[in-house]
């Protein structure tokens, strides 16, 4: 029988706090490298200008601890809890407190409000928390501040089962084309295929956590589909910030699970170029 | 690369007529901020014929809500929010004298028509370069709707704010022009 490892909520509060502050100011090396590569090959003058500014901004943010973007997002937290862990204290409240402290201590913008009255909650809570129970005696926490502009260009649909990869590709490319400059291109496209309506949405969001441009190797159909869809998006001409060019998306990440014989759920979750996520293992 | 046009506020209708979609601009001077709820409130006051908390005549508005300033700083990170949510109100504000708008993303046909009619201008600011743009802000004061927190109306003194003209007085649209130039879909 496995021994149970105790983890105190205090550690969770501190970890969540630290991750959100770090994510808001420190652009991942994978994203920065992809932007630099794109800047070298972009033909559009205004497009290149925009990419250069993004690179400059990442450096300023890191040097000054100013957030990369004023939209420091809705706090999305993915947690994988090892089944041999016992958490002492109120876990949900610990995550919320970590978010509260991050947005206060990190001088991050509080962007969460009542959906109808639009009254700000004042501390950027509640965070959206997704929990998975996994093997082992550790806790893995991923902090993802998600901006509103790109989230607004996302959607879940039920396609006809006959749509196939071609139909899904058309749907994704149409969405990116229609979104145009609004979600702050170059974007990263997360797509979730299959499951149920909410499962596809969760898959789409999880797809955005993958290291940028890393293909889905679980199924050769998916890695091919990701590449073909990316190529097609980058022929649209939208370009960085919609100023024209061939860098409309940096990557397409797809996750897929089986679904009902009658259905084909597809969620497309758009992520702006400020693709922020940081993780820690306790 | 072309040299950017240096413009100082107040932006006049003559200046707007000299701007073309795709122009790079460095804007200096004084602007105000305002986004969703502030627009709704201003628009309601205009409809009721009441006084506005800020005079819009010749004014330029930036659709933005910054992060809180760190100690010793003038302002936190600041950048544009997506403009379409202000489309419903923008023609009312232009009718009340507003001349410049700074945001990101596409505008409605109504807004573009109003830009032509009132000889106004819509600039694009880049999304996601807010730490860089914070360095262009020399002064920031809340002047109205403090209850809205980050969404309150602020007056900003700016220096060399990097912008691109998206919609001009001739009805041109940079986003449309860019796609027709760079689209490679067979």
CATH homologous superfamily identity of chain B: Fe-S hydro-lyase, tartrate dehydratase beta-type, catalytic domain
* CATH domain class of chain B: Alpha Beta
| Shape designation of chain B | globular
Q: Kindly, what is the distance between the CA atoms of the first and last residues of chain B, rounded to a whole number of angstroms?
A: 29 Å
Helix content of chain B: 10-25%
C-alpha end-to-end distance of chain A:
22 Å
For the largest sheet of chain B, list the strands in their spatial order: 2-3-4-5-7
Oligomer: heterodimer
Number of strands of chain B: 7
How many domain modules of chain B?
1
Give a quick account of the main beta sheet of chain A: strands, pairing sense, barrel closure.
4 strands, mixed
Written as H for each helix and E for each strand, in order along the chain, the element string of chain B is EHEHEHEHEHEEH
Largest interchain contact:
A-B, 54 and 50 residues
Low-confidence stretches of chain A: none
Number of strands of chain A: 10
Query: Which value, in Å, is the CA radius of gyration of chain B?
Result: 16 Å
Instruction: Please tell me the CATH architecture of chain B by its name.
Output: Alpha-Beta Barrel
**CATH fold-level assignment of chain B:** fumarase
User: What are the segments of chain B in which pLDDT stays under 50 over at least 5 consecutive residues?
Assistant: none
On the 0-100 scale, what is the average pLDDT of chain B?
Answer: 95
What is the secondary structure topology, with strand pairs?
The complex is a heterodimer of chains A (282) and B (186).
Chain A: E1 5-8, H1 9-25, H2 29-41, H3 45-64, E2 74-82, E3 85-88, H4 91-105, E4 128-134, E5 139-146, H5 148-151, E6 155-159, H6 164-179, E7 187-195, H7 197-207, H8 220-233, E8 249-259, E9 264-271, E10 278-281
Chain B: E1 5-8, H1 13-17, E2 24-33, H2 36-47, E3 60-62, H3 90-95, E4 100-103, H4 109-117, E5 121-124, H5 130-134, E6 137-144, E7 153-167, H6 174-182
